[in-house]
Amino acid sequence: QVQLVESGGGLVQPGGSLRLSCVASGFTFSGQVMSWVRQAPGKGIEWVSEINTRGTHLQYADSVKGRFIISRDNTKNTLYLQMHSLRPEDTARYYCRASDYETWGQGTQVTVSA
Question: In 3D, which of 50, 47, 22 has the Cα closest to residue 37?
């Protein structure tokens, strides 16, 4: 079945960096537009970034533009989110999504705090 397994989150100080990973299985990863979304405590889902199937077209929310980089490795069925200059407002649980599937992974928690 379709599975998405996120990892790489943690506690980081403001200004720090983290790299999130999402390993996909159960579908043809290379055929899916992939995205990252996040949910902060007590708030709704926020779209963060999206990457097309070949990794040639990237989109970012204004709140992360210039700080986050989305990428993918279709040979490893893995999606990445490199996050730099992290801010307390980036604190959230981060999830990867495949465009054609409703499946959610468990997410990975990112906490930015001094």
Answer: 47
pLDDT, one tens digit per residue, over 11-35 is 999 999 999 999 999 999 999 999 9
For 26, other C-beta atoms within 10 Å of its C-beta total 13
Of the CA atoms within 13 Å of residue 67, those in its CB half-sphere come to 17
Structure tokens at 54: 């070949």
Strands (E) across the chain are located at 3-7, 10-12, 18-25, 34-39, 45-51, 58-60, 68-73, 78-83, 92-98, 108-112
User: By the 8 A CB rule, do 108 and 94 touch?
Assistant: yes
Rounded Cα distance, 83 and 97, in Å: 17
Mean pLDDT of the chain: 97
pLDDT (tens digit per residue) in 91-102 = 999 999 999 999
The answer to whether 64 touches 81, Cβ cutoff 8 Å, is no
